[in-house]
């Protein structure tokens, strides 16, 4: 129980879905924070472009401004929360808040995924901190776990479902047998997908989170541009059904592994065993495996987005900073960002098993040149399955490979595309070796 | 990247499975901690009763003692790790380490589950801290999440699989159709269960963890004695098979909920839907749901025991303390333990659905007095199913109830036991309303 209380003033820039959640969480929990932690947490000033939003959230007119400069310029504000997203003026908000000696809490994964080294250096030099729990996994406290509870470990793998929109779409495709376009349209109607769904369905959002999490986990700089990225637009109902028959499930995974050849960082549709914990994560929920050499496999599950879950992460960061400020403890500056200490491994060096679905000309003798193309590239086939979807002209054939190298599989695909017998290479989906995530972990006594 | 380094000396008392893991983790990661955090973490002195264990772990003779007093008396030691378990001399180790101004890290859930108020007060008065991440959920960083990342929330529920031995036994009973005694014997042979399995199979271990986690989550004192406890000895293969047919799975859950009538804290075999995330947690793994009013449902999954996972939690706590010591930041004393601010709700006030399996006399007319016993106590039946296990004399009949109050169900069972038609009340298993775990959470925009 706290013996003293102290006021900590917060400035909030952006009152959208998450900003509104933050304003509400701070208002509704004020008395709890006071009694449990001795922190009188006050939303001193909020800014947004629409004044009516402030009224809707119960923010008094004197605590509202349409100009974010008013927030960072307020000398009584200790912590600035940046929730407008995008590059500009978010970058300028970071710069001026840091220059004014204020800590910054942000959920801006796009910006932090690319520029944490620049912003982190600024903060380190100014003696303030940047907190970004909400930028990776919404309400799931994975950043905190990597920075604190799991620090005894050499981390081996971060892998999981890092985007709720795509998991919602894939879950509905699987449960209802629908195709991507139909579910996307419905998801947009229901508010689970944006009008412009690119950042989600093409993997940008998950790649930003992979960059942030792998930088923290592996103590080396990984930016969003380093992360190989492939979205879910090409995943079909037929692939999902085939996966199910083979005992697999298709998820858009973000994966980062520390390997002898460098950091393997990628986002792509992935087949995983149907009895794997990640296969049970449905709808808009997120889950991340964090595998350490001592702890082995851990997984963190929760809402990856949404007003209140994301606000939980933002206000959690605010309270951590406020606790230091209120107790008079010097929080110390942001540590200087880790430089790049490990190379990024090319996707071409990935070794895994592959699922390849071809649309082929439906006649005797088609298979011979196709199989030869695999053999020519040194890719070994483990199973072939012709689907019953023929229209008399073409039909689908699924090939599973033994472990192969990505660059060889790409050569196979190029060769197949050139064959008269092949109408198209319809799908190439990597089958993830989930056991490899724990390679290098200690054996227990 | 750290700019300065500082030595932090650790004393370790107990070199059993977990203590050995801690010694190995500290030795193997020394250089990583130095380069990543600027902490030169040294095992200055270890104590155990068997000197040969020190040699086995590569601990130099001058850093070993058979007398734990040597460890707490060493003025160069900043942090004492207590890993001997039990009440004595563990209590004396806490007392003398705290009196000597040293922080204490411990995995002693039995002691902390009952006496954290006493030990926490000692630490608060002495200006040192007690850390116990390893006491609840082995390597799963749930204590840290409740104390830091989730602090913005009013916590609603902590519920999960908190004991690996019982989850291993129930998983094998389910997958192999075996009875409890057979799996227990095999688990003991394989080292998954102790020679004296009481603490695990009767629920004491899980109850200690419920006490620790609910005290932290709800900011009120809950001790192990407050937690209703029922183990898995009476769960039969027949119950597991019946559950499966009904779409359920049986798990030993530890559950703590904040309700209007007080803290509902209990450990017992529980039926949960087969598609629930906890149903997918098999073998010796643990998983805990932590539900907050802002974040909604989160779940933490990992190894609940074992040498290295538990060492991960212990050394994580050590590094957090060491980081403060090395940076010269005053960590502040342990906060005074929360007093009891909410009553403990009696198990008799629980309202849920029940699965009741009776062994009844196999003849016409048996059902009428049985059904009357339910009606007399005001417990409404939702389904009756006679199993095909009759031996000509008796057979099993399963009753499912609508939501009923525990005390009424106990009255039903007493009345049934007294009937000539009932050979025995073979099983009473609570069907958990998992949706109620999120009651009180915010609705997202």
Automatic annotation (TrEMBL), chains A, B:
Residues annotated as catalytic: 209
GO biological process: methionine biosynthetic process; threonine biosynthetic process
Amino-acid positions noted as binding NADPH in the UniProt annotation, renumbered to this chain: 109
Binding residues annotated for L-homoserine, in chain numbering: 194
Pfam families referenced in this protein's UniProt entry, alphabetically: ACT, Homoserine_dh, NAD_binding_3
Catalyzed reactions: L-homoserine + NAD(+) = L-aspartate 4-semialdehyde + NADH + H(+); L-homoserine + NADP(+) = L-aspartate 4-semialdehyde + NADPH + H(+)
InterPro entries: ACT-like_dom_sf, ACT_dom, Asp/hSer_DH_NAD-bd, HDH, HDH_cat, HDH_CS, NAD(P)-bd_dom_sf
CDD domains on file: ACT_HSDH-Hom
Gene Ontology MF term list: homoserine dehydrogenase activity; NADP binding
Organism domain of life: Bacteria
Pathway(s) per entry: Amino-acid biosynthesis; L-methionine biosynthesis via de novo pathway; L-homoserine from L-aspartate: step 3/3; Amino-acid biosynthesis; L-threonine biosynthesis; L-threonine from L-aspartate: step 3/5
Family (UniProt): Belongs to the homoserine dehydrogenase family.
NCBIfam families: PRK06349.1
PANTHER family in UniProt: HOMOSERINE DEHYDROGENASE
Chain's role: Catalyzes the conversion of L-aspartate-beta-semialdehyde (L-Asa) to L-homoserine (L-Hse), the third step in the biosynthesis of threonine and methionine from aspartate.
Protein name, per record: Homoserine dehydrogenase
